[in-house]
UniProtKB/TrEMBL annotation:
Keywords: Glycoprotein, Membrane, Signal, Transmembrane, Transmembrane helix. GO terms for cellular component: membrane. The keyword RNA-binding does not apply. Pfam families: GUB_WAK_bind (PF13947), WAK_assoc (PF14380). This is non-specific serine/threonine protein kinase. It is a single-pass membrane protein. It comes from Nyssa sinensis. InterPro entries: WAK_assoc_C (IPR032872), WAK_GUB (IPR025287). It is found in: Membrane.
Length: 282
């Protein structure tokens, strides 16, 4: 990362006036490059992991990936930490199971054994019912310092994890909240993912939320190897066109900024859905 911008980093009036036209072209090119990089990033595949947690359908951490039912639900930090965004806040994700669809999250504010008699104030945990999430019946909750008005100062959640590979079997308790989710299955998504038909990624149009099959060469509404559709679709054109427009706008902005600088120098001496009681801890 470059040095922070300061007024002292600006050249003086004499050096600005002495710049040749080729120098302005170099500055303009450098300023446009980030927008060209944005174009290639927009057309790349969806990320398939965050840290060591796999990201598969119906989820996506890039907009337009996965199912629109779970849009903007998962957040991947720059350090590779995955979080679940809910109406009550963001919570670290420990694991995601797709064979037994559920997410295991932790609430850093809930009570644990190390806290002893220190019952820290906590916020109610809830999930967005519009995203096909539900709190699992395998969770056991303990509430502390509850009043007659049914207000509790703190809580903890224990999830019973299966030890045997083939349940039912032995189970051990672990701190955490199991959140079950549904996997929307459609014929178009299955065809899109079929390796014999191109092995695309299920996604959606970010404007209309209609289904899209994301392929290496572009986006289609069927599957990647469909002979009736060209993979160089409208969406790619919109992305490139938008980036080109932004690039031109950036160039105009740079020119205006340079003009303003020369003029001044010359005069100078970011809720989610509805929360129901069934999906709220307390």
């Amino acid at each position: 990362m470059g040095s922070p911008f300061t007024c002292n980093s600006l050249p003086d009036t004499n050096s600005i006036a002495s710049w040749s036209s080729s120098s302005w072209y170099i500055l303009l090119l450098i300023s446009i490059l980030p927008f060209l990089t944005l174009t290639s990033a927009e057309t790349s595949h969806c990320r398939t992991s965050c840290g060591d947690i796999p990201i598969n359908y119906p989820f996506g951490i890039d907009d337009g990936c996965g199912s629109p039912y779970y849009r903007h639900i998962l957040v991947c930090s720059g350090l590779g930490h995955l979080e679940l965004r809910t109406p009550s806040g963001r919570y670290p994700i420990r694991s995601i199971s797709y064979s037994d669809p559920h997410i295991l999250v932790t609430d850093p504010f809930m009570w644990n054994c190390l806290d002893g008699n220190n019952f820290r104030p906590t916020r109610p945990f809830s999930v967005d019912t519009s995203t096909h999430f539900s709190l699992s019946s395998q969770n056991d909750y303990l509430f502390f310092n509850c009043s007659e008005d049914q207000y509790c100062a703190s809580y903890t959640s224990v999830f019973w994890r299966n030890v045997d590979a083939n349940p039912p079997g032995d189970q051990v308790p672990e701190y955490g909240i199991r959140v079950d989710f549904e996997i929307p299955v459609t014929t178009r998504c299955l065809q899109c993912q079929d390796t014999a038909k191109g092995g695309g990624t299920c996604g959606f149009d970010t404007e209309t939320q209609n289904f899209l099959c994301l392929c290496k060469e572009g986006n289609v509404t069927t599957y990647c190897k469909d002979p009736n559709f060209s993979p160089h679709g409208k969406r790619i054109g919109v992305i490139v066109g938008t980036a080109s427009t932004v690039s031109v706008a950036g160039a105009i902005g740079i020119g205006a900024g340079i003009w303003y600088l020369r003029k001044v120098r010359a005069k100078a001496p970011v809720t989610h859905g509805v929360v129901s009681n069934e999906n709220r801890v307390f």
